[in-house]
Amino acid sequence: MTSPRDAGRVVIVGGGLAGYSAAAQLRTLGHAGSITIVDPEPLPYDRPPLSKKLFEPDFSIDSLAFADEEKLAASAIDTRFGLAAASLDATAKTVTLDDGSTLTADTLLLATGGRARTLQVPGSDLPGVHVLRTFADAKAVSGAAKSGARAVVIGAGLIGAELASSLLHAGVTVTLIDPVAVPLVPAVGEVIADRLHSMHVEQGIETILGVTAAIHQVGESLEVQVDAGPRVTADLVVVGVGIVPNVELADVAGIDVDNGILVSPRYETSAPDIYAAGDVARLRDDEGTLHRREEHWEAAQLSGQHSAYAMLGLDIPSRGAAWFWTDRHGIHLEATGRLTGPGEVVVRHTDEHPAVFLIDDGVLVGAAAIDDNNTVRAARRLIDQRIPVSAADLADRSVALRSLLRAAR
Amino acid sequence: MSEGAVVDEGVMVAQIDDIPDGEAIKIDAAVLGTADDVAVFNDGGEFFALDDTCSHEKASLSEGYIEDGVIECPLHAGKFCLRNGEVLSMPASVDVACHRVIVTGSAIRVVPNPERLAS
After folding, report:
1. What is the interface pTM, i.e. ipTM, of the complex?
2. What is the pLDDT of residue B8?
């Protein structure tokens, strides 16, 4: 198959979900030139389990890997794992690695992802204060969190909440601190966010509303000082306050960045033949408007795959409603589309957990449900196909959303 | 009928009315003598059978979303081809085994994949 654009030698900086997905998609689309992935990590691996499965006996980097060396070789994907890209020459399209070696590309993809944001407070660099972004981070946390230990988790968003749950169920005493009374409202709407957050207390986690002011070493222990609040003693502290995009390589090379590497809808950076995808990429649309970076798993996968279409000059498949999940306290939540902003909120009450929908202008724009994946999977399709829905049907637990899809066919 | 008549292949697991379009049932491994439970799917009136446990994490594919010849795992949306169990999308990266389905009249029979018999 001949593509409209010959990508030539492709070098992908970053072997996470976006970078690996791009490489695999290039091969699927028939790209015959070389593909080389550079990453300081040892393998391309899946990160969502880091906060959920870190205490499980079979937790290993091999079990998280998207592909092992054999599978990568079978796809003729060359790898420079264990090495970081130290510098980039955007004109010559060469990448210099931290061992001094260089790679020359015809097409470059920057999928450098993000790193865990750290707290800018006194004591945030003390030993015993962890973040969670990599497999090594997860092993450090699980190693420090022996049963009976006391942990403080700072940040009750997705990673913090999931980790708090995992720690609790591993026998650790957990305190969860966040400056927002009910986190995740922008992501899942008020009803579900309330339900999710209240589970922490029901399960035995102490939640504290407040801003962390400092962390002190007191003997063998740590003390977390909450601003105008209590001091909490801990054996370990884990900070889960979001990520910082790894833009430095691009920035120093003169590529446009602004809290992310700026890309066109076709994943093009400001430098010719250099693309970006995944957590690090930030869309600057054709009107020049900057969008939020997407930080969810599926967004990274799709943007990696779609950047492969772009690198080959092919039309990019359409993107449907965003989708993500979270697992904590034995429940599985999924959400799709938007659940805040204009529209009518519809709640479907079931025996156990509510499901919520947002209808705007007669069509569904968002849905979230706990332990009811098929409702969300069907909702996604209703959103993408712009099938008219009624609040009465959505509120009625006897109406399967899948039947609304079928009726429209 | 003479002795030694050919016995119907496989094991009858359901009637076609038991599995509405777009739905699936889970057949216990003990019924089929298989290593894993088996999910039997109805996709637009065609029936398929795969190992029930997702190759990614412990989830029952019989509870997944069925559409256009594809089963989407209920947990993390890994996708598999209903016809042959081939993995079609991450996070799953390993195929699931498929089993042969025979529909005779209204009866659905599953012929366990010989490589997936309980050892």
Report:
1. 0.77
2. 67
A384 touches chain B (CB under 8 A): no
- Whether A319 is in a domain gets the answer no
Neighbours of B23 (CB within 10 A): 17
Residue B77 to residue A377, Cβ atoms within 8 A? yes
In a domain, A232, yes or no: yes
CA-wise closest residue to A160 among A189, A180, A143 = A180
pLDDT profile of chain A (409 residues), mean per 10 = 90 98 96 98 96 96 93 96 98 98 98 97 97 98 95 97 98 97 94 96 97 96 94 97 98 98 98 98 97 94 97 95 95 95 95 94 96 92 95 95 81
Structural domain harbouring A55? 10-115+244-311
Distance from CA of A373 to the nearest CA of B (A): 6
pLDDT for position B7: 53
Residues A304 and A356 in one domain: no
Residue of B nearest to A331 (CA): B75
pLDDT at position B29 is: 95
Q: Is B22 on the interface with A (CB under 8 A)?
A: yes
A320 lies in some domain: no
Chain A, chain B: beta-carbon pairs less than 8 Å apart:
34
A259 shares a domain with A221: no
Which residue ranges form the domains of chain B, and what is each CATH number? 21-116 (2.102.10.10)
Same domain, A136 and A157: yes
Is there a single domain that holds both residue A42 and residue A108? yes
Q: Are residue A87 and residue A236 in the same domain, yes or no?
A: no
Question: For residue B102, which of B9, B5, B6, B22 has the smallest C-alpha distance?
Answer: B9
Q: What is the Cα–Cα distance from A329 to A174, expressed in whole angstroms?
A: 13
Q: Which of A183, A210, A241 is the last residue of a domain?
A: A241
Nearest-by-Cβ selection for B65 from A46, A48, A377 = A377
The pair of three-digit structure tokens given for residue B30, joined into one six-digit string: 């003990």
- The mean predicted confidence, pLDDT, of chain B is 90
Task: Determine the pLDDT at residue A1.
Answer: 55
Q: Report DSSP letters for A36-47, one per residue.
A: EEEESSSS-B--
Task: Let me know whether A251 and A237 are in one domain.
Answer: no
Q: What per-residue confidence (pLDDT) applies to B3?
A: 40
Contacts of B114 (CB under 8 A, 6+ apart): none
Contacts of A248 by beta carbon, 8 Å cutoff, 6+ apart: none
Inform me whether the C-beta atom of residue A374 falls under 8 Å from chain B C-beta atoms. Answer: yes
On the question of pLDDT at B108 being above 50, the answer is: yes
Shared domain check, A231 and A253: no
Copy the structure tokens of residue A114.
């993000």
> Are A51 and A92 in a shared domain?
yes
Residue with token string 């005493």: A173
pTM: 0.91
On the 0-12 / 13-18 / 19+ scale of CB atoms within 10 A, B118 is exposed
Among chain B residues, the shortest Cα distance to A71 is held by B93
Residue A120 lies in a domain: no
Nearest to A129 by CA among A2, A224, A26: A224
Number of domains in chain A: 3
